[in-house]
């Protein structure tokens, strides 16, 4: 009987110690996770090499890997990066579903009024003209686009601003173009140019056009950059995101200084795009 009582007592002590240990672990876990805020991030999942789904089924690309590098520097934040269509990403940023949007985005007046913008860019975007192959030498700059059938542009994007600015500065040499709501893949637009539906497609060159042209064997003439613009991560405008904007900007500046941005650029674009950044 005495042995039985000792065994019951010993077991009870073990249970108490185990419970205490579990509580300590839970407390430590809570303390570790405490203060770390999850940031919901939307990227395109089909804009190779900017952001896309790799062969392993995971998101990758220049902006995705840059975001991961930024995340590593921000101890108080954890990025949850999701793939989303362009329109879904923009709507989600407006509604607060996403805190941060990355789509190789050029600033516009509307975007500057609507979102929080880090001071530091995530790299320059090279604006080029993609024209039908038989127009090499005929279409080399914006000056050559009046009278041409230009692919419609989204009314809030950098291309829209570029063409409008050109028209304001050249009242006697106007570029005619229509607007669309977007959502049409870059590959489809290039195919339309190849097929002669349109003469020219003005587009940032960081969306994998060259790879599309080569894989589909398209007869497309690509001009030299007609404009160089910095691109930015856009952040949902809220009080709690103001600090996030500043932290992201600081991290981007450090990553440029450390050479990480140049390494990612060479890996995904085949050249260091920072050479074009003023």
TrEMBL record:
InterPro entries: Solute-binding_3/MltF_N. SMART domains: PBPb. PANTHER family: AMINO-ACID-BINDING PROTEIN YXEM-RELATED, MEMBRANE-BOUND LYTIC MUREIN TRANSGLYCOSYLASE F. SUPFAM superfamilies: Periplasmic binding protein-like II (SSF53850). Residues 1-18 form the signal peptide. The keyword Signal applies. Keywords: Signal. This is Transporter substrate-binding domain-containing protein. The keyword Oxidoreductase does not apply. Gene3D superfamilies: Periplasmic binding protein-like II (3.40.190.10). Residues 38-272 form the Solute-binding protein family 3/N-terminal domain.
């Amino acid at each position: 009987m005495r042995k039985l009582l000792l065994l019951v007592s010993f077991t009870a002590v073990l249970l108490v110690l185990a419970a205490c240990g579990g509580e300590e672990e839970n407390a430590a876990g809570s303390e570790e996770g405490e203060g770390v805020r999850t940031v919901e991030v939307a990227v395109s999942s089909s804009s190779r090499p900017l952001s896309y789904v790799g062969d392993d089924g995971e998101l990758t690309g220049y902006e995705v890997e840059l975001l991961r590098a930024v995340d590593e520097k921000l101890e108080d934040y954890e990025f949850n990066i999701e793939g989303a269509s362009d329109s879904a990403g923009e709507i989600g940023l407006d509604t607060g579903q996403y805190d941060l949007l990355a789509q190789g985005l050029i600033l516009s007046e509307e975007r500057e009024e609507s979102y929080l913008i880090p001071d530091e860019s995530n790299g320059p975007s090279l604006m080029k003209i993609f024209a039908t192959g038989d127009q090499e030498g005929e279409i080399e700059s914006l000056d050559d686009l009046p009278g041409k059938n230009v692919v419609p542009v989204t009314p809030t994007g950098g291309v829209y601003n570029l063409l409008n600015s050109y028209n304001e500065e050249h009242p006697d040499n106007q570029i005619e173009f229509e607007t669309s709501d977007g959502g049409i893949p870059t590959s489809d637009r290039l195919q339309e140019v190849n097929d002669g539906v349109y003469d020219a497609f003005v587009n940032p060159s960081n969306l994998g056009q060259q790879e599309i042209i080569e894989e589909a064997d398209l007869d497309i003439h690509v001009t030299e950059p007609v404009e160089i613009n910095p691109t930015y991560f856009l952040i949902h405008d809220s009080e709690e995101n103001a600090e996030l904007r500043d932290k992201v900007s600081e991290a981007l500046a450090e990553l440029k200084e450390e050479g990480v941005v140049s390494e990612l650029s060479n890996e995904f674009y085949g050249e260091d795009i920072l050479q074009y950044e003023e």
